[in-house]
Amino acid sequence: MTPASLRAWRWVHRWTSLVCSVNLLILCVTGLILVFHHEVEHLMGTEELDTSFTEGQAPLPLETLVATAHRQDPALEPKFVSFDPEERGARYIYLSPPGARDFEGGRWVVLNAYTGASQILKQPTETLTGFLLKLHVDLFAGFAGQMFVGVMGLLFVVSTVSGLVVYGPFMKKLAFGILRFGRNTRIANTDLHNLFGVATLVWAFVVGLTGAILSFSPLIVGYWQNTEMASLIARHAAEPRAGTVVGVDEVARAGTAAFPGMDLAFIAYPGNDYASDRHYSVVVRGHTELTQRILSVALVDAESGKVVETAETPWYITALLLSGPFHFGDYGGLPLQILWALFTIVTGVVTVTGFVVWLKRPRARAVAGMTARGTQGTRA
Amino acid sequence: MSGVWSMPVALAVLSFIGLASAILGDGIWHWVCWAGLAVPLAVCALKLWAQWPGRA
C-alpha cells in the first residue's frame, strides 16, 4: 500500500468512527440489555402473554378470533392477522380506521388462538425494554431518527472495514495481541483497540450491517410494495367481480393449499398496504430457523376465494428478514445471547479506546499548544 | 500468509462459522456456534489476563 492510500484509509477510519461513536455507544448500552429483553420482561412482569394450549387442541377459527378482536373496537376494521412461529398459541390482529392502508392510527389486539382470551399489550414506551428499544431504533425521533441510526450503522460498517485495512501496516512489526500497558495512555489504548477490534471484527461487521439493513426496512419494504407487489396486484385489477366476499378462514385454506408444508406468516385484508383493494394476501413461511425467514405470497381473490397468483419474495426481503437473527443474536439459545452481550461489551471498549487514541493524538496537542501560545501572543 | 494476518484470519473464520451454524440447525449446530464465537472472546480475555499490569 502506498503511503498516500494508507493516509486516506486512516482518514476514513478516523472520521467514520468518530462520527458514529456517540450513537454507537448508545446502541451498545441499549443493545446489551435488549439482548436479554425476554428475560428482562419476564423479571419485570411485563411479559404476561398467556399462549398456552393443550397439544392436539384445535385453534379457534380465524373468523371467531377476528370477530372477538373487532368487538373491542367496532369503529375500526380488521386489516391484518399475524402468526408467530415462536408463539404458536398467539394471534396478532391489527385493526385500523376504514380506508387506512398503513399501520398508523390503528391498534393490535393479541388473542390466545385456542381460548380467544385477550392479551393486554402494554404500549412499548411504558415498559423498560420498549423504552430502550425506541432509543436503540430511532432515538425517539421517528422515521428521521431511524434513518439517522441507519446511516450511523453504515458508517460503522465502513469503520470496521477501514480499521482492518489500517491494522495490517500498523501491526507489521508487532506481535498479535501485544498489550503495552506500561507505556503511555495512547499506546495502551491503541493496543487494546487493535486486539479487541480485530478479534471481534466479523461479529461487529455482521451486527452493524444487519442493523443498518433493519434501520432501512421501511424503505426496503416500501420498495417491494411499490414494485413487485404493485405489479402483482395490477395484473389482476381488471378481473370481473363475483359479488360475494369469502371469510378469512377460507382465504387462509386456499392460500396455504398453494404452498404445501408451509406455515402461515400473515394474512393482509383487502385495503391493506400488503394486499389489493379486492384481494387478500396470504403470506407463508417455512419451518426451520433459516426457511422461516423466506416468505412466499398467495394473492387470493376476496370474492371467489381463489388463488389468482403466487409469488416468491425478492432477495432483498429475504435479506431483510435474515438480518433479524444476525442482529438480535436470538437464534442460538441463552449461550448465544451471553456471547452476544460479551461481544457488545468488547465493541464498546473498542469504541472508547479508539476515541482515547484520537484524543491523545500527538499532533493535536502540539497544534493546540501553538494556538494557545498564539492567542496569548496576540493578547500581549 | 504473513504473521500479521494468521491470527485475525483464524478468528474471523471461527466467528463466521459460529455465526452461520446456529441458523442452519439445532443441537450440534448450536454447539459449533457457541464454540466458534467463544474463541475470539477467549483470546481477548487471555491476552488481557496475561499482560495485565503488575502480572509477571
Automatic annotation (TrEMBL), chain A:
Keywords: Membrane, Transmembrane, Transmembrane helix. The chain crosses the membrane at residues 12-36, 147-171, 192-216, 338-359. The keyword ATP-binding does not apply. It holds the Pfam family PepSY_TM. It comes from the Bacteria. PANTHER family: BLL7967 PROTEIN, IRON-REGULATED INNER MEMBRANE PROTEIN-RELATED. This is PepSY domain-containing protein.
UniProtKB/TrEMBL annotation, chain B:
The chain crosses the membrane at residues 32-50. Keywords: Membrane, Transmembrane, Transmembrane helix. The keyword Transmembrane helix applies. It comes from the Bacteria. This is DUF4175 domain-containing protein. It comes from Azospirillum oleiclasticum.
